[in-house]
Task: structure prediction
Amino acid sequence: MGEIRKGNNNNLPLEGTRVLEVSEGVAGPYCGRYLASMGAEVVKIERPPLGDWTREIGPFIEGIRDGDNSALYSYNNQGKKSVLLDWTSVNGMENLQSLVPEFDILIEDWDLNFRDDIGIERTELVDSNPGLIEISVTPFGLSGPYARWKSSPLVQLALGGYLYLTGERGKEPLMLPGRQPDYLTGLNATAAIHIALWERERSGTGQFLEMSMLETLATLHQFTMEMTTFEGVLRMRNGNQWQKESSFASYGITTLPCSDGYVCFGISTEDQWERLCAMIGREDLIDDPNYDTRIKRADNSEYLDGLLTEWIADRTRREIFVETSEIWGLPTAPILDMSEVVKDEQFLFRNIFQDQVLGPGKTVTFPKYPYIASEMEPRIGNPPALGEHTEDVLGAK
Amino acid sequence: MVKSLISSGSLSDIRVLDLTRVWAGPLATRVMGDFGADIIKISDPRVQLLSTNGLNHKLNRNKRNIGIRLDIAEGREIFLGLVEKSDVVVENFRPRVMRNLKIDYEALKSVKSDIIFVSMPGFGVDGPYSEYPAFGTTAEAVAGIPSLIGYGDGVPISTGIAYGDPISGLNAITLIMAGLRMRNQTGRGQFIDIALSASPLCNLGEYVAGYSSSEKITIPSGNRSTEYSPQGAFRCRGRDQWIGISVLNDNEWMNLKNLVADPELDSLETSNLEQRKKNEEIIEGLIAKWTSRLDVIETVSLLQENGVRAGSVSSGAQLLEDPHLNDRDFFFDHEEEEYGWKRYDGNSIPGNRIPKSEWSGTNDVGANSKEILIDLLGYTESFCESLASKEAVYFGE
Result:
């Protein structure tokens, strides 16, 4: 694989592409970060005096609360230029619009309320700038009954059907960590821009792309809606167990204690179930009429968890992970916390982390990208200080 | 290779050979198929594709299907013939499976020099865990996701949604498109290796950076957050009905407090975030007491009208009925031969020029084998029959 991990940093797919980012938070900026890593020049417009609000959100490097020390901001804005310009006034918006013709892509997060206040029509900028690809990234899109609602990651996960599925049955449903709806939408927006760029190469036309965070989540369910439409069964949350009803019922997606933490099993197919029985020395269960269907096994998950816990005994996560994977071919994994993730030998082997010196001269570790490509090595630049490039970009005008 | 620019889809000049199964891979190719790419799904005729649970119906629309035995010499010949006529090959097997089939980048490159070959294995194609099996739920575990979900008792909770998969699928769309763009610029193809387990890690950038700067790990406590308080899912009237509420600032809190109108709240100091964090448990209890008697949908409307971030915790069945998604014509209704009209999620990437009325449903194994062999590879009818008699190819029921 040596040849593969060489990468080629000189020639990236978005070299020469100019992106104007007028978007705060995570969704739009995560998209801008991805485009920058592929060679685009990304100019981020920030409002005076404080800039993107994520600059005010922790965790802060070395606990020093300063707009250039936010880990959340730094991660999502690597490799961009920062320009101070207040686009939220009518005058400022005019200044901003005068910049638009110099760019290929505009990422913005202007919801209906803001558009009404400032007086900017849905496709106004694309209409007057042929070739421009404008992506609007908002919680609910620019039409429909929720278009003027306020949102949060929890509210998105709730309406998008993710919240209902995580946590113990009967107890409060639990959210995914941090800002997952925003990250997912940022990835979806990146894909949308690549598709629109392909279209533009063919037809020469740009477009206005109205992306909704809620719709992004609604397309990222494996079978939540199909359990209802095909089997008439509601998909439920079951703590660390998988479904107990429907054809998706299964035993073996479960989390069990080891001597040093928890290990997650992902057994789902019939042949994996048989290997699991062999592994714990209970081949008799394979033909046992109490365990011969997926639903019966799911119903008996407590008993089966007990057997598996006995088999684990006082061994470590690592011992279980290696034995189940190497000898039995079963998908399992240690549940790692952040202190362990950053030392994980597979992630380190794949060189997924990058250190950057930020703020008060402290070295901080960030994940890069989840891929290795033979001709594309992500370019990781530093996050900009607030307004660092204002003169470079606006001064030229 | 330019097929025809007359077709209305943005990606109609792209052909993808799709060897992927389950979720992450099919999700990525589904998006491309919706936009008009010619997705040729290669299925092993011995493995059932469509079943009564709808999973593969949902994920494999707008794709053609050919049934090929890749482990038979004549089947391999067909596959390599198709590679020569394609732009992209995608697979998500364990690395060993591809090695046993002798399908790797070098082999593909020798028949199509600028092919884009994308692998989506659990841990990546190399490294200490590369041969270990994985599953969306185990992939999120090594990335640290469950360590950040829980009720505060130290027991990690997995997402209910096999979270490694959807993130990896979104990454794959971007990386395929970027690879194609580079090919058009440089004339070279490439090998892209996306690790299922690395995708969720890259959605946790602030946690990795936060840990590396402070060496402190985050212990989850339900839906509580350092930024929003109060925040949580609160039980409403009816069976397993919950409302998600996030309070970002003091104004929003005043509005919520006035609606809850509980004298006990007035007796507490709650006007700023610090005070609310201190009294969080009592505040949550009083909100829960208030919501327990209320209808969730009415209460969400009431809160949003008063500027409070709220959403109903939707199940799969409720998602299908969601008034906003329906108002925006998000869903795709399609009549399946055996199952009648079914409602599926649409595409959350905007800008598709192919109307949903022209989308096609899922084709079963081998349904398009003959047309692909005759039209694309120029095989004769009798040659097709001879291949079928050797079981190298399958023409469906």
Remarks:
- The radius of gyration of chain A is 25 Å.
